[in-house]
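Work through this protein:
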Amino acid sequence: MLAHDIIIRPIVTEKTMTGMPSKKYTFEVAKNANKIEIAKAVEEVFKVKVAKVSTLHVRGRFRRQGKFSGYTPSWKKAYVTLTPESKAIEFFEGMI
């Protein structure tokens, strides 16, 4: 898989922004990607060094639209921690 196929999008919320000073970033990733593949993809795309990757599966939420009901798609989230000597990811710098 290509690096851009593994990293789907960054997750930008108030909670994820609190981890930026300690170089912790959050991404939505491919459901079948493992931690090693995620770390290599982040290093390749953003030119940084990854120290640690934590992943979790996010369940789909129940939603209703009138008489129709169903679940939103489930997805995978990755918390990526960079090494202390690594530079920060520029994409997130303008968000603070």
